[in-house]
Amino acid sequence: MGVLCRAQNWGSMRILIVEDEPKTAAYVSKGLTEHGYVVDIASNGIDGLHLATTSPYDLILLDVMLPGADGWSVLEGIRAKRDTPVFFLSARDEVADRVKGLQLGADDYLIKPFAFSELLARVQSILRRGSGKVDPVIQVGDLAIDRVRRRVVRDGRRIDLTSKEYTLLDYFVRHDGEVVSRTLIAEHVWDMNFDSDTNVVDVAVRRLRAKIDDPFDAKLIHTVHGVGYLFEQRPL
Ligand code: CA
């Protein structure tokens, strides 16, 4: 195993989801939980405001159209007491709504339907900004990933990755030493469904290998035939 302080990095981060659509709440909650966050769900504005102002959260994901009290008033109520970062999750795509949300003190705005990877990237970004206690650099052998700068260095050489390649590498590193199937990779990196074409995974892995493995003697990404891939450092 590389130096991967998963629990230390993410274990204490608490996120509140205020969302009345059970499917959306479950989908977002499942994804965030899998990434090590502690998640609570409130299904209406009143419970959401109560939890948001009485429990310590690092981030609040707030739907706009809610029973009880809408997202605007929940945000106003939160802002009267706390400066917890708030993201609006909304089906509304009106510019005026977005401006209103930001003026009321929201930190970001995601339009439904959104890809989970997009939400996760923004969540990680704002949580990094909010707390100085997270060590952002993960080291696996001679490979170092700086999550704040999204910068990858191997054996002292800077490696430029596309956004997808970075997300894929980040996924591998989080699962250091575990066999991950193409299906799992597709779901987590592309938010694709189980029956989606997983050939796209192989193509992306090939591109990532060309950058982080091919120029070096020690390979990190290993093919597990018939199953998927295994990311790990092996002795030469
Ligand atoms: Ca709603």
Q: Can you describe what's shown?
A:
With 236 residues, the chain is an alpha/beta fold. It is 42% helix and 21% strand. Strand 1, helix 2 and strand 2 form a beta-alpha-beta unit. Helix 3 runs parallel beside helix 4, helix 7 packs across helix 8 and helix 7 packs across helix 9. The radius of gyration is 19 Å and the shape is elongated. The N terminus is likely disordered.
Overall average pLDDT: 84
Shape, please?
A: elongated
Task: Please estimate the helix content.
Answer: 40-55%
Strand order of the largest sheet: 2-1-3-4-5
Q: Main sheet? A: 5 strands, parallel
Number of strands: 12
Computed over alpha carbons, the radius of gyration is: 19 Å
Portion in strands? 15-25%
> What ranges have pLDDT less than 50 throughout 5 or more consecutive residues?
1-11
Order of helices and strands: HEHEHEHEHEHEEEEHEHHEE
Structural class: alpha/beta
CATH architecture of the largest domain: 3-Layer(aba) Sandwich
What is the total number of structural domains? 2
The distinct ligands, each listed once, are:
calcium ion
Count of helix runs: 9
The named CATH superfamily of the largest domain: Response regulator
